[in-house]
Write a structure and sequence with these properties.
Elements lengths: L1 H27 L5 H11 L15 E2 L1 H8 L10 H9 L5 H10 L9 H25 L6 H12 L3 H8 L4 H20 L5 H15 L5 H18 L3 H21 L3 H7 L1 H11 L4 H16 L4 H17 L8 H20 L9 H22 L2 H22 L11 H11 L3 E5 L10 H4 L5 E5 L5 H8 L8 E6 L4 H12 L4 E6 L3 E6 L1
Parallel strand pairs: 2-3, 2-4
Antiparallel strand pairs: 1-3, 4-6, 5-6
Length: 521
């Protein structure tokens, strides 16, 4: 009983420390990616894109117009139907957006990153807990299992990949949790001498939540199913295979009843068709694998994966030459194969090479690499020496972001100055000369939600008369800010604006994801 209380206390301290780290990182988050804007808009707005409004282009708007897309207003309290409707017309299932919509209800009429970040912080409390449970199963034959498990669970939750996931207001933290819960339940199933109905039911519920969060979850689940199907067939446990299969099929049917549009999304929508086309094209396979390995190296292992892999391979070869035998670990294999399978399929099928797509398995990849390193070291050296070496490597992982000077991908600290400058220091009339064939407006909606007056000029013919018409009756004594997105002659546009408004100075402020920003006076 005393040991149990001590364990609970240590876990609680770890979770509190983890949460403090997340909150500090949250205060440093300075910008949002367009997909984060989509998350907020799809959860709260009455249509998928603000650009679909009839008055969006070629009109002056206040910052409230754009902030409305990112917030829940008083007249929207208690309304959730638009979440389902928006997701029907988008490319993702609705579970995360429903949770986010609920959280946004605590920040009425005001944009804030905190509802989304706090949702992810809460999710990561459960991620760490389930990682702790999984690690206890993985390390069950080792000494001081609980101590090692909580340390590894904690470190896996504060890598740059995990911090990026917490700060990124999308469904990837929830997808990570779904995968960990499903993994843990399958470990329980692996350990069961007979099929327990409650374990099957929980597996079904976790699968239901997983597929209603992100379709890539099915990659992980598919390999888990194959492993258990092969296991049951080898052991001639056909009854177990039948019940296991029926459970997944039943909850899959429930998912279809709840959100039948997933069939359209996965097989007939543009994103689903893109995945199918990429799965047919293996020419980019090795390149994509390499690019994703670089991503997981930088963020999942804080730039030390390559070093860890070299050490692991080198010592493993040495151990084999010394004819050192390694015990098989069914739990490790149960984690390893679905993780690799997910990684490969995402590398082939994802529309872009982005960290977010592999975040759901980055924690599992982290503990697997550390586990295999530990096993190799333990079989070559004594236990104490293996613990010391692993401790040194973990310490290097923790300090490497400071050494290499990089931050969570979704913190965007380089955008902090431009947000402050446009919203506070300048706050002058702002014109976005918008080429609609390069439509990524939501990448910069946060800036437009900070300035008092802005105008989106769609596919404008650049003449002095048209520029003057836009800025007629506007106070430009302190200058204007100009946004120009892709596919246009920036220098030519700037010269026409300067001539039309009798400006003499042009200051280049920032290159953003989708456009360039200038201050003219």
């Amino acid at each position: 009983m005393k040991n149990k209380k001590k364990e609970i206390l240590i876990v609680a301290i770890i979770l509190i420390l983890q949460t403090i780290i997340y909150v500090v990182a949250g205060f440093e988050k300075s910008y949002i990616h367009m997909d984060e804007a989509y998350s907020l808009g799809l959860a709260s707005y009455d249509k998928t894109e603000i650009q679909a409004n009839d008055d969006f282009y070629d009109n002056w708007h206040t910052k409230d117009y754009y902030e409305d897309y990112l917030t829940v207003n008083e007249d929207e309290i208690g309304k959730y139907s638009q979440v389902y409707e928006n997701q029907k017309n988008d490319v993702h299932p609705p579970l995360f957006y429903l949770i986010l919509r609920f959280a946004m209800g605590f920040s009425i009429n005001h944009f804030s990153i905190w509802p989304g970040v706090i949702v992810n912080i809460i999710i990561y409390i459960f991620i760490t807990l389930f990682m702790y449970l999984i690690l206890q199963k993985l390390l069950q034959k080792e000494e001081k299992v609980k101590e090692k498990s909580i340390i590894l669970a904690f470190i896996s939750s504060i890598t740059m990949a995990s911090l990026s996931s917490v700060l990124y207001i999308r469904m990837y933290a929830l997808s990570t949790l779904n995968i960990l819960i499903t993994t843990y339940l399958h470990i329980k199933l692996l350990e069961s001498k007979k099929l327990e109905p409650k374990v099957l039911i929980f597996i079904g519920i976790s699968c239901l939540c997983g597929v209603l969060t992100h379709y890539y979850y099915l990659f992980f689940l598919a390999m888990l199913y194959i492993l258990f199907a092969v296991r049951y067939i080898k052991q001639k446990e056909y009854k177990n295979l039948l019940f296991y299969t029926l459970t997944l099929a039943l909850f899959g049917l429930v998912a279809l009843i709840i959100f039948p549009y997933m069939i359209k999304h996965m097989f007939f929508g543009y994103r689903g068709q893109g995945v199918i086309d990429k799965l047919k094209d293996i020419s980019q396979f090795m390149q994509n694998i390499g690019l994703y390995l670089l991503r997981i190296n930088k963020y999942g292992f804080n730039n030390l994966l390559i070093l860890l892999a070299i050490i692991l391979i080198g010592f493993y070869i040495y151990a084999k030459k010394k004819k050192i035998k390694f015990d098989k670990n069914e739990v490790a294999n149960l984690i390893l194969y679905p993780t690799i399978f997910y990684f490969i399929l995402v590398a082939i099928s994802s529309p872009w090479i982005e960290l977010r797509y592999i975040i759901p398995i980055s924690g599992l990849a982290f503990i697997l690499i550390i586990y295999y390193l530990y096993k190799v070291f333990k079989n070559i050296f004594k236990e104490n020496k293996a613990n010391i070496v692993i401790g040194v490597l973990l310490a290097l992982i923790l300090v490497s972001p400071i050494i290499f000077r990089f931050e969570p991908e979704s913190m965007y600290s380089d955008k902090k100055e431009i947000v402050t400058k446009l919203g506070n220091e300048l706050n002058v009339p702002t014109v976005f000369f918008f080429n609609s064939s390069h439509n990524r407006f939501l990448d910069d909606i946060l800036l437009f939600a900070t300035v008092d007056n802005s105008y989106i000029a769609k596919d404008l013919e650049y003449t002095e008369q048209n520029i003057q018409k836009i800025l007629d009756n506007k106070d430009v004594s302190n200058g204007i800010v100009v946004f120009i997105n892709g596919g246009q002659e920036n220098d030519s546009i700037i010269e026409i604006v300067k001539k039309a408004m009798n400006f003499s100075n042009c200051e280049y402020l920032k290159r953003l994801n989708a456009c360039d920003v200038y201050y003219l006076k």
